[in-house]
Amino acid sequence: MKNHPDLIHNSDQKEAREKRPFSLTRRQFIKLSTSALVGVGLAAGGYASLLEPKMLEVTRVSLQQKRLPDAFDGIKIAHFSDLHLGFHTNADDVKRLVSVINRERPDLICFTGDMVDGPAEDMVEAVAPLSKLQAPLGVLSIVGNHDFENMKRLIALQKRAGFTVLRNENVILERNGSRMAVVGLDDWLLGKPNPDRARRGIPQNMYTLLLMHEPDYAGLASEHPFDLQLSGHSHGGQIRLPWVGEVITPPGSKMYIKGLYKIGDRDLRLYVNRGIGTTRLPFRFLCKPELTILTLNNRV
C-alpha cells in the first residue's frame, strides 16, 4: 500500500512542530510582558511605600574642623530632619527614632526643620517620645517651610518636648572652659533668614555651626563666618532611580541633595540629611530615611 501524500505532509508538519524551539506569539508576548511589568511595579510600589520608609539608616561622618576648640574635639552630633508628622509619620515612628538616637549617646542633637507636614496639632502625640531625647549640650531645632501653618503653636510644642528653637538666633555652648556657637536661621522659602541678626553676641573667630532648612542657602551662608551648615529639606530626592539619581527635588535643594559638600573659598562644609518622613507621596525608593551621626575633630 502506498503512503498517501497528505498523510506524509501532515506527519512532517507535526514532527517539525515538535522539533521547533518554544516561541510566543506577539499577543502572548505582550500579555506576558504586561503581566511582568505590573508585577514588578506592584512589588516596587509595596517596597517603596511599606518597607523602605521604615528602614532607618544611620550614617556616620567624621569631619575635620580646623577652628573647633580643643574642648569640643570629638564632639558627636546627632542630626535628623523632616519628620513630617501627620503624613505617614506618627508617634510610634518617633519612639523608634528616639531610641536609636539615645543609643548613640550624642553630645548634641540638631533637628533641621519640617517637624510637621501641615497642622501644628500633628505634633501633639509626638511630644512625649521626643521629650526623651538626651544630649548634655542640648537639643536644638529650627523651622522648615512646612512648619508655618501655626508657627506659634508648633514652637510651643517643640519647647514642651525639650527643644531650644532657634529662629534667627544663636546659643553659645560651653565645655571645659571653651565655647562654640550654634546659629539657627529662619526658613529661606517662607521666612526671613537674617544671618547678621542671628550672629549677634557671637565673638569674632568663634567656631560656629549653622542650622538652615534649605541646603542651597549654603551659597549665601559662605559669605559669613560659618564653619559647618546642617540642612534637610531635600529628602535626598525621596525617590531615586539607578543610574539617574533623584527624580525631583523641591526649590531650595536643586544644587545640594544629600551628603557632604564643600562650599566656596571659605571652607564652609555642608551636610544634607535625607530626612525621616515623606511628603507629597508616601514613598521612598533607593533613598532610606537617615539619622546622621557627625563626629567633629580639629586635627587630622
Give an overview in words.
The chain has 300 residues and is of the alpha/beta class. 25% of the residues lie in helices and 22% in strands. The chain has 7 helices and 14 strands. The chain is globular, with a radius of gyration of 27 Å.
Distance from N terminus to C terminus (CA atoms, Å) equals 99 Å
Number of helices: 7
Which H/E pattern describes the elements? Answer: HHEEHEHEHEEEHEHEEEEEE
What does the average pLDDT come to? 88
Gross geometry: globular
Q: Cα-atom Rg, whole angstroms? A: 27 Å
* Strands in their spatial order, largest beta sheet: 1-14-2-3-4-5
Main sheet record: 6 strands, mixed
Quote the beta fraction: 15-25%
The total of beta strands comes to 14
Helix content: 25-40%
Q: Uncertain regions: pLDDT < 50 for 5+ in a row?
A: 1-22, 28-44
Structural class: alpha/beta
Key attributes of the depicted protein:
300 residues, alpha/beta, 7 helices, 14 strands, 22% strand, disordered N terminus
How do the helices and strands line up, and which of them pair or pack?
Blueprint: H1 5-19, H2 26-51, E1 57-64, E2 75-80, H3 91-103, E3 108-111, H4 127-130, E4 139-141, H5 151-160, E5 164-165, E6 169-175, E7 178-184, H6 195-198, E8 208-211, H7 218-221, E9 228-231, E10 240-241, E11 245-246, E12 259-263, E13 268-272, E14 290-297
